């Protein structure tokens, strides 16, 4: 038995509330179960009850055993002074507030249908399945699944907003600077994301702006700050970058102390840090007011066009400063652009629209639904259980959110699919 099961029973009134009585025999009339609280403090706020002949308004706390009240030291916490009912599975001890007044208790043990308890136990019975509901998941109706995926994606956008809000605070609400930092992190991918971000944060955005539309200056700035120009190479391009960086370093009093050096190990050559930094420099060489351009883009096609970027000419025949290869342009591929849109542009537009009081959700969903689903273990796992569960990027992002924040921590009772299973609607 888990405490969140009691939350589910109380929130959805999945017990015989018509016969509910306190453990001292007083009739309980449930007028309003209250608002579910997911933060510190009582589990439900602002409930309304009638116990005996007395009307009550206040908070409700739930525990498996009544004695958990003392285990969590609620009897000394002023946040629990306004608890009007203690809902438990087993009432093993009476509990009191700080002022020693006793709190009425409701035991649900004998008020819950046995079939519901069996459904609950079977949902959590297996320890070997990929997700708890994998036997039932294929039977979920399309409307429930799609609606839940939309809610999950909004939840994921809110989660990604936290980093953006932190960066905005540090940059004094400089949206252009935050875009640059997020793009840098994205260009580093999973392996070098933090390293690229540390480079972007190692100088003020005004430094980047003062380098203007000069690709050599921008690339020298990025590679130099990343510590990738600290070896003596004889190629003319290396020497040009090194000389430019030394000039910039002196002019802007740059320091790369504390910056995480990007890694090359296990990376495909097209993802080498020097290649990605050169492409990032290309974006800022082409667009002076890049943030506004991206925020005004009104179609997927226009967004893709704004992400067109190639390396400097030198990198068309090189992956390193020392070895050359047959000439080949190294432009940002569509899959990489999709990652940038998913992880940077859509979350940033979501935050920007919210800051201006504008509703862009329909447009953001439309963009995400036009992008192909991400391919990873999680999306493949869900598609294996149920074909076409993840077709577009909105769905794949939603499934990542569900697997990591609901399936893995066994938060099935907070999941629309889990609650539907318990209700017997599948």
TrEMBL record:
Do you know which InterPro entries this protein is assigned to? Answer: DUF2851
Highest taxon of the lineage: Bacteria
Protein known as:
DUF2851 domain-containing protein
- Species this chain originates from: Salegentibacter echinorum
């Amino acid at each position: 038995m888990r405490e969140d099961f009691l939350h589910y029973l109380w929130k959805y009134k999945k017990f015989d509330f018509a016969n509910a009585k306190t453990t001292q025999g007083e009739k309980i009339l449930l007028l309003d179960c209250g608002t579910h609280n997911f933060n510190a403090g009582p589990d439900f706020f602002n409930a309304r009850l009638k116990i005996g002949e007395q009307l009550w308004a206040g908070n409700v706390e739930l525990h498996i055993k009544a004695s958990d009240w003392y285990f969590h030291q609620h009897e000394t916490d002023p946040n629990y002074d306004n608890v009007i009912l203690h809902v438990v599975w087993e009432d093993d001890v009476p509990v009191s507030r700080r002022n020693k007044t006793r709190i009425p208790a409701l035991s649900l043990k004998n008020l819950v249908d046995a079939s519901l308890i069996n459904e609950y136990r079977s949902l959590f019975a297996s320890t070997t399945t990929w997700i708890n509901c994998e036997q039932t998941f294929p039977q979920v109706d399309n409307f429930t699944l799609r609606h839940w995926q939309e809610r999950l994606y909004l939840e994921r956008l809110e989660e990604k907003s936290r980093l953006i809000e932190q960066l905005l605070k540090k940059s004094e609400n400089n949206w252009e600077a935050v875009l640059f930092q997020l793009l840098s992190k994205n260009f580093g991918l999973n392996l070098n994301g933090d390293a690229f971000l540390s480079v972007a944060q190692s100088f003020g955005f005004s430094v980047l702006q003062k380098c203007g539309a000069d690709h050599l200056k921008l690339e020298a700035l990025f590679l130099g700050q990343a510590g990738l120009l600290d070896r003596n190479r004889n190629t003319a391009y290396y020497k040009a970058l090194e000389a430019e960086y030394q000039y910039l370093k002196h002019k802007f009093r740059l320091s790369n102390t504390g910056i995480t050096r990007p890694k090359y190990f296990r990376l495909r050559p097209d993802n080498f840090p020097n290649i990605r930094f050169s492409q990032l420099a290309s974006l800022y060489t082409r667009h002076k007011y890049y943030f506004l351009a991206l925020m005004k883009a009104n179609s997927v096609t226009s967004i893709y066009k704004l992400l067109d970027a190639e390396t400097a000419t030198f990198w068309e025949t090189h992956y390193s400063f020392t070895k050359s290869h047959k000439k080949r342009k190294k432009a940002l591929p569509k899959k990489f652009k999709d990652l940038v849109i998913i992880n940077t542009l859509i979350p940033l537009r979501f935050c920007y629209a919210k800051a201006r009081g504008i509703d862009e959700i329909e447009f953001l969903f439309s963009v995400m639904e036009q992008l192909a689903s991400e391919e990873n273990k999680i999306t493949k796992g869900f598609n294996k259980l149920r074909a076409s569960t993840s077709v577009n990027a909105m769905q794949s992002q939603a499934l990542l959110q569900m697997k990591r924040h609901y399936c893995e921590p066994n938060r099935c009772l907070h999941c629309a699919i889990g609650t539907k299973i318990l209700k017997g609607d599948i």
